[in-house]
Amino acid sequence: MKKFWQQINRGLVLLFAVVIGVTIYLIVDSQNKKKQRDELIKLSTMFISDSSRLYEFPEDIDFWDRSNIKQDALLPALYQNATPIYHYFCDNEEARKSQIESTYNFMYTSYFEERCPVSCERTITGIEVKEIYRDSATITINTSTTIEYEDESGKRTSEQYHTYDTLQFLYQDGQWKMISMSCSLNDDGMYYGAY
């Protein structure tokens, strides 16, 4: 009988040790995810503010010259305009450029609507960390975006859009770097009136 109780006691001690170990692991993992979540929200908030420049036509190009709206003329100016926000992106030039190229649709549509985007202000109305998994994360952000346009006569008008951004991050060399961004401002259907 004594041997039976010793085996049960060992089993209970082992069960107790496993429960304590799992509990500690879950607490530490939860704290790490909260720290990562806070860091990602801060980084995403800074990016949204700084990314306004992506929706402003480069000043060194004449918007009204039809030849400047072609991709080979406009894309180098868009890359140059985006240089101050390159530090948010991963260390892959092609990946950075492909994300900047997505704003070309916005510029192209603005050209055909005969209004030059001269300033942009983005205000976050909602942000959510959708997923953090194995050194990658997905963040969704709702923004209120106000863009000031100028027509050929110099008259300025503003429009407000409710936009939706999705940012994807990768943990690289001890910090979060963006690998992909999408914004509803870059969708073709967005430009036929403010929401």
List the SSEs and their pairings:
Elements: H1 2-50, H2 71-82, H3 93-101, H4 104-112, E1 116-133, E2 136-150, E3 156-172, E4 175-183
Antiparallel strand pairs: 1-2, 2-3, 3-4
**Shape, per Cα inertia axes:** elongated
Strand content: 25-35%
**Rg, Cα atoms, Å:** 25 Å
The domain count comes to 1
CATH architecture: Roll
Strand arrangement within the widest β-sheet reads 1-2-3-4
How far is it from the N-terminal to the C-terminal residue, by CA?
78 Å
By DSSP, the count of extended strands is 4
How helix-rich are the residues, as a percent range? 40-55%
CATH class: Alpha Beta
| Overall pLDDT level | 85
Largest sheet descriptor: 4 strands, antiparallel
Tell me what the structure shows.
With 195 residues, the protein is an alpha+beta fold. It has one domain (2-191): Nuclear Transport Factor 2, Chain: A, CATH 3.10.450. 41% of the residues lie in helices and 30% in strands. The chain contains four helices and four strands. It has a four-stranded antiparallel β-sheet with strand order 1-2-3-4. The longest helix has 49 residues, at 2-50. It is elongated.
Tell me briefly what this model is.
Helix content is 41%, strand content 30%.
Task: Give short descriptive properties of this protein.
4 strands, 41% helix, 195 residues, Nuclear Transport Factor 2, Chain: A, 4-stranded antiparallel sheet, 30% strand, alpha+beta, disordered C terminus
